[in-house]
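Q: What residues go here?
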């Protein structure tokens, strides 16, 4: 078990320094503190809607850096009427504690509950995650006992299986190719979304994934979609892994679904 934990830690790439704030990109915000498992204090931001609130979103970022470098995924949503809660997992940014996969799951659960308790309207709450955050969100909603309070779950470029994504990454170089099998099986896979995605129903599920994704291959979302129960949707996007919503056409797709989910 200790070996699994040690190898799984290699998947994380946290950064403590916040390189920007929402204010620096012209977005109003306030700092929030969330108490997670083992009384770990998490730091996050609340971005209030600029216009009448259409809905609320709790956002979970990828495995690298922190909320300040993932802000571009969601900073544009308040102008569209959506308030956003975004939080750093333990060990990331200003959040306390040490990086840990099980701890990250607990952090996602705590953030969802915080958003439900603090949203500024009676509109629905959407769980939105990118990459690693998407995979965490899928698992969390699948096993949640508060599904009735969640309007939808949306993943962007999520991977279906922790061991498989490690194999994908290692197979890209001839130097690491030979290590993809032994190393991938040292990864803790107990939270793999592919084993739980069928339990998300009846919460609506939207899988968004670019066919040009150079980090997480598109087939991961295809695998998740094939196993998910209705209502489910799969949208093939354009662009690379980390700049999804620099593309206006991708923004339009997300906004159309958000309107459908929260109304």
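A:
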């Amino acid at each position: 078990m200790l070996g699994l934990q040690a190898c799984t830690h290699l998947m994380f790439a946290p950064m403590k320094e916040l390189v920007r704030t929402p204010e620096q990109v012209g977005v109003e915000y306030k700092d929030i503190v969330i108490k997670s498992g083992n009384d770990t204090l998490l730091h996050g931001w609340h971005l209030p809607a600029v216009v009448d609130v259409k809905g609320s979103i709790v956002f979970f970022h990828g495995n690298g850096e922190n909320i300040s470098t993932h802000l571009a995924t969601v900073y544009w949503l308040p102008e569209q009427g959506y308030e956003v809660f975004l939080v750093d997992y333990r060990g990331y940014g200003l959040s306390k504690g040490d990086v840990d996969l099980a701890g990250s799951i607990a952090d996602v659960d705590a953030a969802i509950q915080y958003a439900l308790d603090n949203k500024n309207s009676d509109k629905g709450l959407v769980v939105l995650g990118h990459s690693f955050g998407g995979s965490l969100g899928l698992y969390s909603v699948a096993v949640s006992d508060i599904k009735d309070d969640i309007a939808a779950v949306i993943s962007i470029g999520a991977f279906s299986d922790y061991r498989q994504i490690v194999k994908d990454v290692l197979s890209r170089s001839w130097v690491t190719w030979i290590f993809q099998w032994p190393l991938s099986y040292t990864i803790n896979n107990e939270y793999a979304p592919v084993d739980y995605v069928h339990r998300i129903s009846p919460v609506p599920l939207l899988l968004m994934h670019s066919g040009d994704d150079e980090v997480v291959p598109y087939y991961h979302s295809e695998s998740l979609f094939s196993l998910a129960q209705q209502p489910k949707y799969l949208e093939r996007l354009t662009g690379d892994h980390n700049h999804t919503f620099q593309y206006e056409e991708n923004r339009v797709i997300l906004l159309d679904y958000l309107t459908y989910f929260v109304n």
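A: Context that may help when evaluating the design: Helices lie at 2-9, 101-118, 132-142, 162-170, 180-184, 219-227, 248-262. The chain has one domain: 2-262.
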